[in-house]
Amino acid sequence: MTRRANQCSRSVCTNHMTRLHPNSHTTLLYALIGKADSTKTKVTLSSKDKDKGKKNKSAHSTDWSEDKKNDSDGGKNTSEIKRNEKGQLVFKDHPEFTPNMSPKEVLQAGSFGGTYFRPIYSSITKQHYKDVWQEIPKDWLDGLNISKQVASSTYRENVNTYNVKCGGSLDMWESSGWIVPQDPYGWFQWYCRFYQGRRTEDDARQISRWAKCAGVKGRWRQNLITKVVRSGCVYDNPSVSPVVRQTLQHWGYKLTLEDYKEGAKRVKPK
């Protein structure tokens, strides 16, 4: 890191990113994430995935939370999930999926404007949902105000880590074909359930979506790295592209110094 980067002033970075990422562009950002997801709801399974699917629940099951209550072990013991030397979570059956924030960390950090598990009506399942947050392990919600930080119907920017609005509407996600019946709330609901041990035929698609957003060469991970390089700021300066940082957090990823250095090698000069 250069001396100039270390001494980068917050005001310079803030002005730089205000120009590049006004809040009015957040819906466009999410639309582009979806556009990069070429698989959408059509799941193409390898023979290995098909074998897994025979052993696990259908991709269109909507009753996982009830089944979990009936399991003798209540699902996977999440304390068994380890991290590698890079701080990435390790899922032995899906080594290609390497987020570095657990669902608990995403919620505790301040995400989704506090609205993720709000009451909704799903046009996919034609059902109303509320209190879905109750399927989440209690310790994930320690210290959080459920009505304001988890299941609020009102979006609050100040709940988010980076104090910005970030995300498209449920209607947008549904009409774009990215929601399937088993997880009517979307990707993060899938992640919460996957983390707790559920496996379904939809896992390959959801992991692919994550990779295209926040994986090693993910669009928004590299987008953030590029903007940091060109701003001259340190990799973790929160004023550089706060909307993209918040977006990546919702996908279980936070930029690290090691990832920044590696990604910076791919940044082309202006």
UniProtKB/TrEMBL annotation:
The gene is zgc:113208. Residues 40-104 are annotated as: Disordered. Residues 63-96 have a biased composition (Basic and acidic residues). PANTHER family: BLL5189 PROTEIN, ZGC:113208. It comes from Sinocyclocheilus grahami. This is Uncharacterized LOC107597249.
